Predict the structure.
Amino acid sequence: MQEPLKQNQARGPAEEAWTEKLSGVIALCLALSILLCGLWIYLPFFEPICWAIIISLFFYPLYQRLVRLLRGQKVLSSFIMCLLIVAFIIIPAFFLITSLTSEVVRVYTSGMAALQNLNLDIIPDPHKYPTLNKLTVKLLKAFKLYGADLHGTLADLTRSAGEYFFRKGTTVFRNIAVLIFKSFLMLVILFYLFTDGEDMLRAFKSLLPLRQENVDRFMKLTSDVLAATLYGNLFTGAIQAGLGIFIFWVLDFSAPILWGTILGLGTFVPMIGTAIVWAPASIYLLVTEQYLKAATLLTFSLLVISQIDYFLRPYLISGKTELHNLFLFLGIIGGINVFGLLGLILGPMIIALCMSILELYRLNLLEREQLWKSDLLI
């Protein structure tokens, strides 16, 4: 009788430990399932939430100044900020997107109209430009695009482009009510991010499984990298795009908003930068014997647009950790591929967060090496 009793007593703690582990695993799986369900519920609102977070990060310093000006009136300050963002960001963005879409359609239409006279437009006049004519013909023949082949290839390309823009256009107009709803939802989220953003940030910091000093270091690194990305890169890119739109409009280009926008995106291309647009445009003006316009565009691009990278960008990111141009460029391309238009900003922000995590790991590793060396010396 005593031996079975001893076996039961010995088995009791082991069974209790196993039961506790099983209960912990079940509780963890249940918590993860509930968390995933919660994220699934918020998934349809991913875009307005992300846009609200991006805009709040960008304009939070201005909101803090407004709070100080209004003597701590957070609700009123947040309401005023939302009105300002609607007036100076959302409404102009809608007009810009509408104008950009119309210019893309106009460029596509003019390309279709010029398709009938394609050889005359692409191949230079052999009497005026004999060398350029021979070079162009050789290149077209090398790629088997000379004559009828060129017409057929570009006809297929323009047809595919037309179908793509038609499909995208109908999608936008069909979902206009959804866009309005998402914009309204973004403003609501933005309002509460301004008023309660600091409390949300403290709650997030308390959930990180790190020591307080590491949490503070991580938040500081993240803040610096995001500030350098938002202000030093995206903001300067937007300014360069605006200047590009201005100069192309002054020089009477057919689609100034389109080419200015491409110029702004070109600022993130490593080594080439904004020259990816203004250099070919200047060459085009020279070839077409528009010398005054070519000189104006070249001078303005070199002395104004390109100089922003040397004067404004260092001022905005001074003392902050900056993303390398290659990582920034790949982040934008990959972000657009994954998230669409949102990826233009969200992609670099995600890369910035990854950089902050890696930098925090590097700093902690250096601290451990220093402690290890000090222990050896002792």
